[in-house]
Write a structure and sequence with these properties.
Number of domains: 2
Number of helices: 8
Radius of gyration: 37 Å
Number of strands: 0
Strand content: under 5%
Helix content: over 70%
């Protein structure tokens, strides 16, 4: 190391540095060994890619998880914590494709039947029935209302009514009567 420093001093004087400049530069040079080595340009490039890739991977992972949640939410019963997500995605689907109302209406009628069969809380059954009635009324007013879709719903709701508590039975009957002219 000492030989290197002497060589550096000689070279600095050879290129015209004054003794005071050589002393200052030699002091700086002696402290250079304490510095950490710099990243190479290849490593610097890899680091830049990493700063771009990491957020992209996190974003893609979030998107995948979101899509999976939506897929799972489509088949959950109204008692599940993901049911509000199902409602949200159903509303988005209807806004994009209005004929999807029939599918949602039939899904709600089936859910009412399943809730009655599972002896769910009557409040949850009545809320789902109210949602069904709302969807059925909206579908009934559409120009492409399908008689078969209403028959499917009617069949599910009549089956539910036979096993329901008196208050739920009355609500189902009232809903069916309100849609009678469908």
């Amino acid at each position: 190391m000492k030989d290197n420093m002497q060589q550096l001093g000689k070279e600095l004087r050879d290129v015209g540095a004054k003794d005071s400049e050589v002393d200052e530069l030699m002091a700086i040079a002696s402290r250079l060994s304490a510095l950490k080595p710099q990243a190479t340009s290849v490593r610097g490039t890899a680091f830049r890619w990493q700063t771009v890739l990491r957020p992209a991977l996190v974003g893609a992972s979030g998107l995948i998880v979101g899509v999976l949640l939506v897929i799972v939410a489509e088949s959950v019963p109204p008692t599940n914590v993901l049911y509000p997500l199902q409602n949200l995605t159903d509303n988005v689907a209807v806004s994009l494709h209005p004929d999807y109302r029939a599918t949602i209406m039939m899904k709600r009628a089936l859910q009412v039947n399943q809730l009655v069969g599972d002896h769910a809380d009557s409040g949850k059954i009545l809320a789902t029935l109210a949602d069904y009635t709302e969807k059925a009324n909206a579908y009934k007013s559409s120009p492409h209302a399908d008689y078969a879709a209403f028959e499917y719903c009617k069949s599910n709701l009549e089956q539910a009514a036979t096993a329901a508590t008196p208050d739920v039975h009355a609500a189902i009957t009232k809903s069916l009567e309100s849609l009678q002219d469908a």
